[in-house]
C-alpha cells in the first residue's frame, strides 16, 4: 500500500471508529508499527489527528485562538449556555471558566440574578458589567491571549483562595478514554485549580468537541459532576460516557 493510500485509510478509520490503534492497523495492513507511527506523526504535524499512546484520536477544532472560535458553532454554544445558566441558583457562587461558550453563559444569566461570579477571564468580567446584582471577582495572573484568560502560578494561587457552589468548565476535547483535554499545559493546570474549588463541576461542550482530544489532560471523568452538550443524544461517545456513569445534560 502506498503512503497516500495508507494516509487515506488512517483518516477514514479515524472518522469511522473515533480512534486509531497502531498495532491493530499494522496487523491489518501487514506493515510495521513503526510505519504506522510515522504516518501518524505526519498527520499530526498537519493538524489532522492527536497522537496518544498507542495510536491517535480525532483532533479538536476548538484549539484555534479566541477570535477564530467565536465563529465556531455559535448556536450550539448558546444552547449549551442556556442549560448551564439554569444551574446557577440565586445567592450562589459560580466559578466561570473562560472561552466562547463560557461567555455565552455569562450573557445567558438573568440580568437581575443575585450571585457571585469568580472568573479568570477579563471578557467574562466585562460581560457581567450590566448585571447589577452579580458580584464579580476577577482572578489575576499572566494573560494567556490565545484564550483571553489568566493562568500561571499567580492565577493558580489566587484560585486556591476561593470556593464556590458550582464550576462551569470549558475544554477543547471530550473523549471517553482521553478524558477532558485542552491545548495548553498552563491552561489545563488553571482549569484543574478552578474545578477543585467548587462543590460541583459541569463541563461545557458544544458538539464539535465530542469525541476529540487535545494534548493536555484537564480532568478524568470521575472528577466532574456532568457534561452539558448539544450533541445528538444518540452519539456513540455519549453512550459510552453514560455507561461509565457520567451525567449528560442535553442542550438540544
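Q: What amino acid sequence fits the structure above?
A:
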Amino acid at each position: 500500500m502506498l503512503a497516500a493510500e495508507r494516509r487515506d485509510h488512517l483518516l477514514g478509520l479515524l472518522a469511522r471508529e473515533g480512534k486509531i490503534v497502531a498495532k491493530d492497523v499494522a496487523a491489518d495492513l501487514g506493515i510495521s508499527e513503526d510505519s504506522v507511527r510515522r504516518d501518524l506523526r505526519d498527520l499530526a504535524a498537519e493538524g489532522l489527528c492527536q497522537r496518544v499512546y498507542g495510536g491517535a484520536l480525532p483532533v479538536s477544532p476548538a484549539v484555534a485562538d479566541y477570535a477564530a472560535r467565536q465563529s465556531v458553532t455559535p448556536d450550539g454554544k448558546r444552547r449549551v449556555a442556556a442549560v448551564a445558566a439554569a444551574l446557577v441558583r440565586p445567592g450562589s457562587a459560580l466559578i466561570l471558566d473562560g472561552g466562547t461558550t463560557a461567555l455565552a453563559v455569562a450573557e445567558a444569566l438573568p440580568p437581575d440574578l443575585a450571585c457571585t461570579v469568580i472568573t479568570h477571564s477579563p471578557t467574562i468580567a466585562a460581560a457581567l458589567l450590566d448585571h447589577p446584582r452579580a458580584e464579580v471577582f476577577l482572578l489575576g495572573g499572566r494573560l494567556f491571549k490565545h484564550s483571553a484568560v489568566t493562568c500561571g502560578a499567580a492565577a493558580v494561587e489566587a484560585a486556591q483562595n476561593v470556593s464556590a457552589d458550582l464550576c462551569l468548565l470549558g475544554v477543547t476535547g471530550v473523549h471517553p478514554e482521553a478524558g477532558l483535554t485542552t491545548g495548553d499545559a498552563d491552561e489545563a493546570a488553571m482549569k484543574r485549580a478552578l474545578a477543585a474549588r467548587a462543590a460541583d463541576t459541569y463541563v461545557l461542550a458544544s458538539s464539535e468537541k465530542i469525541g476529540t482530544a487535545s494534548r493536555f489532560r484537564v480532568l478524568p471523568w470521575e472528577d466532574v459532576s456532568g457534561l452539558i452538550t448539544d450533541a445528538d443524544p444518540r452519539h456513540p461517545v455519549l453512550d459510552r460516557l453514560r455507561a461509565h456513569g457520567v451525567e449528560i445534560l442535553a442542550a438540544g
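Q: And what stands out in the fold?
A: The radius of gyration is 19 Å.
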